[in-house]
Amino acid sequence: MPAVIRSAPKGRGGRKAPARAVYSPTKLKGVGAVGLDHRAALWAAFGLVFFVLVLTLFTGVRLQHLAGRMGEAVDREFAALGFRVKSVTVVGGSALSTPAVLKAAGLTQGTPLIGLNLEDVRERVEQVGWIKSAKVMRLLPDAVAIWVVERPRLAVWQRQGVINVVDKDGQIIPEADPGAFPDLPLIVGEGANEAAAAVLPQIMARPSLYARLEALVRVDARRWDLRLKDGALIQLPAKGEDSALIQFDQLEQKARLLEIGFDRIDLRDPEMVAVRPKDAVTPSAPAPGPAGASTPAAGAGLTAAAAGTAAAE
Question: Can the peptide bond before residue 286 be classed as cis, meaning omega within 30 degrees of 0?
Fold first, then answer.
């Protein structure tokens, strides 16, 4: 069974960084239109576009350069009138993801706003590991808003000594520090990242069990062992984990095993639940009984019914 390693949360005094929703690259000095209101600016821009079009037709410039030159001219004109990026607002991002979103967007003070390629900004933002999807909009005259949907964090995944945070699809979130998420469940082993989304909700639906859970260990890339904080082990089958957990619920109601404690519960056989008590000691060889007969090894395993009887006594 792989070793279970978990990093300690990072941060000063255990405090989370405050959320920052609005980003101003630098403080502006004297920002504003230079003597024209927005209506006058629009007419001026349209006049400039018409002038460039006429000039292009008479000079024979190739059509493929026409749109580019017109766009650049309009962008410069509007930028001169105050249509430049002053602030960038991230909506839906956490305090952890927002700095990475702003860095990926690459918007700085003074960036011309009208000619800004919003699709390019969106694609850059969606390259951030935290982000599942994004939408970018201009807010005239001088702001940009970025709406993001973060990837839902599922668990901390340990494999071959490497620890990462993964989302519900099993994808690694590279910017996420595992030590910053002590409340996420720990999953261990090859393939655990992809299989955990199916079993974790069932375990979380059992608060008494989930509160005692130390790690979910993927065994042979086909089934789970639940390792509890007191060292106990619950072995689930490769198929039918939900039925096995229902069996566990029934046994827990009768015998209160989580309170009493146990060494191991084997749920791999749907016909029989084997329970090894916590204080049971298994000898290396069976002790001889009367008349040379052998007796079962102590703690070799109890059926569910036998475990209930033992608890009642």
Answer: no
Strand residues in 20-75 grouped as ranges (E) = 22-23
Cα separation, 101 vs 129, whole angstroms: 10
- pTM > 0.70: yes or no: no
Q: Which domains does the chain have, with CATH numbers?
A: 22-150 (3.10.20.310), 153-312 (3.40.50.11690)
| Span 283-312, pLDDT tens digits | 444 444 433 333 333 333 444 433 433 333
- The token duo for 145 is 């808003």
**Residues 117-137: tens digit of each pLDDT:** 899 999 999 999 999 999 999
SS3 string, 128-158, reads: CCCEEEEEEEEECCCEEEEEEEECCEEEEEE
The residue among 112, 85, 90 whose CA lies nearest residue 101 is 90
CA–CA dist 271, 289 (Å, integer):
29
